[in-house]
Amino acid sequence: MEHGGEHGLRVVVVDKFGGAGNGSTSASSAVVRFTYPTIAGVKAAWESRHCWEAWRDHLQAPAGEPLAAFNRCGVTILDVDFAPARMFTRHFDKVGVPYEKWGEGSCPGGCPPLTPAGTSRPVDDDEFFADASARLGALHTPDGGFVDDPQLAAHNLATAAQRHGAAFRWKTPVTAVMRRGGRVRGVCLKDGTELSAGVVVNAAGPWSGQLNRLAEAGGDFTVGLRPLRQEVHLVAAPAGYHDAGGDGGGPVLADMDLGTSIRPEGREFLLVGGTEPECEGVPFRPCRSSGRR
Ligand SMILES: Cc1cc2nc3c(=O)[nH]c(=O)nc-3n(C[C@H](O)[C@H](O)[C@H](O)COP(=O)(O)OP(=O)(O)OC[C@H]3O[C@@H](n4cnc5c(N)ncnc54)[C@H](O)[C@@H]3O)c2cc1C
Q: Which of 12, 14, 25 is the best mutation target for the ligand 1 pocket, counting ligand atoms within 8 Å of the beta carbon and taking the most?
């Protein structure tokens, strides 16, 4: 970024792909939830929710411009030892995020027909086919939901940025970060161009750790970042699921113990995803529960 432009900054966005939202954003399940373990995470998610709800105003987009839509279908997360409701409600109370705590077996907000799943044991465990012997509660946030087209949302943001004077250079990978006097001074692009800038914002998503290394930055960060593979499948929704939710379909459900989440996709389907990929070396939760529903 350099000084100039409408708000005092001249912004050039450099991206190695051919357009906005072609990175991990295009593959995202786009669930908007508030269940983050830090208060900073909860605040950021809660603030974003207001932007999604008033997307056209947020972007100052003219009427008629096609925009991504936010579906407020609610997000329900099972209250499990690995991610107990209290871990989130202590922040919700401070930030003002509305929530309902569903007791064991009761879903006053109207939940989808959850089938008792038996024990959460691996298939090669003798107890896999045993009946469930316990029930779980859940934490429901009615204001959560999902964005129907995350790639379009990224396009919307790029178009809004252009309206405010930002320039875009697509298919131009950053190959080096220029430094002078201990400060970042700009970037070098693959085509040989050098872009000098007073401020360089690293928005490289899963590649941002790599870019930090090019910039020799991040050594003192307390939070690291690395890409993780995520698996998401499109399956037919069971009967009754969509009727239990709002206009956008059935609610989003997450089970951090089993490491799965589901969200509606159209009126007939579900997206089923994992919350932590075992293949990436993330310690997958062992099946601790003796029996649950
Ligand atoms: C399958 C899946 C499901 C997900 N589900 C959810 C969900 O339900 N809810 C949720 O909140 N999050 C979800 N996420 C995570 C979410 O998608 C990401 O956190 C988010 O999209 C990251 O956005 P970003 O703009 O930071 O990165 P990206 O969208 O990945 O964009 C990074 C950009 O940086 C560019 N870039 C990288 N390196 C360079 C370089 N050297 N030079 C130039 N350009 C470069 C890339 O070309 C890319 O355009 C999911 C992710 C996946 C993969």
A: 25
Q: What is the pLDDT of residues 60-85, one digit of tens each?
A: 999 999 999 999 999 999 988 888 99
Q: Which atom of ligand 1 is nearest to the CA of 25?
A: 21
**CA dist., res. 203 & res. 57, Å (int):** 24
User: Which domains are delineated in the chain?
Assistant: 2-280 (3.50.50)
Q: Ligand 1: which atom is nearest the Cα of residue 21?
A: 29
The pLDDT tens digits of the residues spanning 239-263 come to 878 776 666 677 899 988 888 899 9
DSSP-derived secondary structure for 77-141: EE-BTTB-HHHHHHHHHHHT---EEE-TT--TT----PPP------TTSGGGGSPP-----EEEE
Q: Is 14 in the pocket of ligand 1 (CB under 6 A)?
A: yes
Pocket flag, ligand 1, residue 20 (CB < 6 Å) = no
Rounded to whole angstroms, how far apart are CA atoms 155 and 55?
13
Residues 173-218: tens digit of each pLDDT: 999 999 998 899 999 999 999 999 999 999 999 999 999 999 998 8
Give yes or no for residue 26 CB within 6 A of ligand 1: no
Give me the helix-helix angle, 39-53 and 85-95, nearest 10°.
60
Cα separations in angstroms, 289 against 52, 155, 282 = 37, 44, 20
Q: Which atom of ligand 1 is nearest to 22's Cα?
A: 49
| Cβ(30) – ligand 1 distance below 6 Å | yes
Answer yes or no: is the C-beta of 253 below 6 A from any ligand 1 atom: no
Tell me the whole-structure pTM to 2 decimals. 0.87
